[in-house]
Amino acid sequence: MTPPERRDFIYRYLHEHQTVSIVKLVTLMSVSHMTVRRDIRLLEEEGKVISIPGGIQLNDALRQELPWNEKALIHHRYKRAIGKYAASLVEDGQVVYLDAGTTTFEIAQVLAERFNLTIITNDFSIIQYLMNKPQLNLFHTGGQVDKRNYSCVGKSAAMVLRSLNVDIAFISTSSWELEHGISTPHEEKVLVKQALLEIARRKILVSDSSKYGKYGMFRVCPLSYLNDIVCDGQLPMPVQQQLYESNMKLHIVNI
Prior knowledge:
The protein is an alpha/beta fold. The chain has two domains: 3-58, Arc Repressor Mutant, subunit A, CATH 1.10.10; 68-253, 3-Layer(aba) Sandwich (Rossmann fold), CATH 3.40.50. Helices cover 39% and strands 25% of the residues. It has helices spanning 3-17, 22-29, 33-45, 68-71, 76-87, 102-111, 124-130, 154-161, 187-199, 237-245, and strands at residues 19-21, 49-52, 55-58, 95-98, 117-121, 136-140, 144-146, 151-153, 166-171, 175-177, 181-184, 200-206, 218-221, 228-232, 249-253. The strands form four sheets. Strands 6-5-4-9-12-14-15 form a seven-stranded parallel β-sheet, with helices on both faces. Helix 5 packs across helix 6 (102-111), helix 6 (102-111) runs parallel beside helix 7 and helix 8 runs parallel beside helix 9. It is globular and about 60 Å long. The chain starts with a helix and ends with a strand.
């Protein structure tokens, strides 16, 4: 692997496993300790990781998201289960918004077999997947293209959303927690998500537990702005309890 490929591998591995030892990285990449430490130093300078005794972990302050095609491979079984459950919350005849993301793509795959639904999204992958489903009404927001995430963001997309009425919105995120709420490292995404909070009758966060405990620079909203959260059973029990006590409708999907 080239140096950039090694650093991408380390960053992807951490998204899957949260922490990793230097010894493990040496074995996985078949390189020297010195090479691994050099890669780690550069990742630390970029703010992506922090050192812990004997290894590294992701920086809770999220600076950058993985590309769509890489995120799709991480925690896929949890995302698939969350997507299946979330789709069961949709009623016939509803106008449904699917936020850009790999978990919402799983919802789209289930809704693809439904009838009498209108699907709105800013995600090109979702639109492409649903394009050959004639029984569904489809609407794409348009707007500034985020090539890394195969979606549209920014003021134009938000403006289109504010002209619509949405029954149920499934909102994705790369980072959320009790203190910082939903956040993102990319300012352009904030406008779209905040527009959803204004127009949707029911607002549901769909996220696997690996996203919990991280936060980006740009805050979208407190968790209290949501109606529901759908997550997997790996979400820490103290967090689950606090969410229940706050009258949040928390749906835990066990696998």
